Amino acid sequence: MKTKLRIFGLVFMMLMLFTVTAFAAEEGGSPYGALSLLPPLLAIALAFLTKQVILSLFLGIFSGVMMLNGYNPFISFLRTLDSYILGSLADGWNAGIIIFTLSIGGMIGIIGKMGGTKAIAEALAKKAQNAKSAQLATTMMGILVFFDDYANTLIVGPTMRPLTDKMNVSREKLSYIVDSTAAPVAGMAFISTWIGYEIGLIADVFTGMGFEGNFFMVFLNTIPYAFYNIFTLVLIYNLILQGRDFGPMYDAEVRARTTGKVLGDNAKPMSNLDTEEFADHREIKLQVSNAVVPIAVLILATFFGLWYNGWVLGEGDILFSDIRGCFGNADASVVLIWSAVLGSIVAGVMAWARKIMNIGEVLDSWVEGCKSLLITAIILILAWSIGGVVGDVGTADFLIQVVSTTVPAILLPILVFGISCLVAFSTGTSWGTMAIVVPLAVPLATAYVTGDPTTSPLVLATLSAVLSGSIFGDHCSPISDTTIMSSMASGSDHMDHVKTQIPYALTGAAFAMVSYLIVGFIESFAGDMIGLAFGFIGIYIFVKLVGKKTDEATLKQV
Question: For the chain, how are helix, strand and coil distributed in percent, rounded to 5?
């Protein structure tokens, strides 16, 4: 009965949405007006309602394509498949990420068969004696793999999952930590795959206004104003060190601590690399090196590959000694394929050389590992497809047109942050949001100041509000590729990850908004210090008052 009611409700909601779509007025910065919000909102709402991410994304894409093709369902169905789904896979960057993701799965499959993940879990468990130390170790590893958000999620999640499982840390909490140390860290790192893109946007907007300068230093000067990124990390450490959680995450942690179930009863994890089919029940000597060596090769190959690739693509314009320039100019999708395949080869050679598996078994393990991430690959393709659709219907243009009216200078940073969060959450892309909002926000902020805008606290705060607000969406939107990959890497149910993470993301965003308001009122560098102090102290108090100790919950149920 419940299933029938849910299906009826779903069909009814779809009919209502399409009816509204057909008759709504065209207004705002998008030719479709408020209707441009339909594709992302439909996908997100259905994902929460049905927990069927693939179906929800497809219907979100289809609704947008309907708008673009005069509401002709037949033509729209064809264009959904060929122009958007096939088109997103045909993109070189996206194809590279798919190959990288599958290759990582293959490498982990080999490591699992060698007993590497079990060995590293047992080794770490000797030092990490409880859930708190396991979470701290995961957070530290996430920060150390700072140079790329994709590499971060796909290295940290599978590596730390055996340990956190052993210490009864929920998969929801693991995926939250993995996600929170990916984009928020890479977006601030001095050397990363993000820095070239961010500096490029900064240089374009300032030179377009006739201002020159050291734009790398401009980027560095925005970091103290990256309140959302900073407060995300502050919140993680407070939750772990105080041993507290709140919202749906608290329930997940109580379940894991009291029952040992790291996944909910109805969870559908996005990868199954830790299930029995990947276990080898032969007597194998457990060696940490079976996991550490391939993973170390993966990390080092990614680091030096980004350095080398950026230098080669620079075609003589970038010195090999300019490591920041090389990283910023590198094609991360290509380098990640190099490193994942190299790591797979190293894992396979080790398994063969140590007589754990023969060549046939190595290849079978690699293929099985790839198969386990097929669903992830499908969801990534659909997420990229809906990103193309929302760009074509002008979702971001509409949001900016509606929200960005003339405002006092003191409200500019908080307003820009709010716009960036909305656009990024709706589109699931931080880079796309940056590209849209930076050229609009920076000239607006410059109009409020006299002198060099590259050193103005108001302009720097507004610019940073765009960069960190964009990461909010990349961090927690259910249609963001990084959020999807974090669920996969952690072996978590995707919607469980999203639902438990959103209250934490909103907490960081709320404190960031107040800090941006402080900066707007105090137009000096003192405002930044006061904003940071407010966030540090406020988050500590908030977690202490709102959070509940999971240890106490365990004792109550014993």
Answer: 80, 0, 20
Query: Tokens at residue 178, please?
Result: 């993995």
Three-state SS letters, 265-276: CCCCECCCCCCH
Judge whether 260 and 168 are in contact, CB under 8 Å: yes
Binned at pLDDT 50, 70 and 90, residue 22 comes out as: very low
Phi, psi of 496 (to 5 degrees): -65, -40
3-state secondary structure of 547: coil
Across 181-195, 300-314, 373-387, 541-555, the highest mean pLDDT is recorded for 300-314
DSSP string, 333-400: HHHHHHHHHHHHHHHHHHHHHTTSS-HHHHHHHHHHHHHTTHHHHHHHHHHHHHHHHHHHHTHHHHHH
Taking only the tens place, the pLDDT of each residue in 178-200 is 999 988 988 887 766 676 677 77
Mean pLDDT lowest among 5-14, 96-105, 361-370, 378-387 = 5-14
Cα-only R_g, the chain: 24
Backbone angles phi, psi at 244, to 5 degrees: -125, 155
Between 178 and 331, name the one with better pLDDT: 178
Beta bridge partners of 493: 269
State the average pLDDT over residues 31-56: 78
Q: What is the DSSP track for 200-247? A: HHHHHHHHHTT--S-HHHHHHHHGGG-HHHHHHHHHHHHHHHHTEE-T
Give the alpha-carbon dihedral of 361, 363, 365, 369, to 10 degrees: -170
| Residue 345 CA: distances (Å) to CA of 108, 298, 342 | 12, 10, 5
Enclosing H/E stretch for 181? none
Backbone φ, ψ for residue 405 (5° rounding): -100, 175
Using DSSP, state whether 261 is helix, strand or coil: coil
485 neighbors 246 (Cβ within 8 angstroms): no
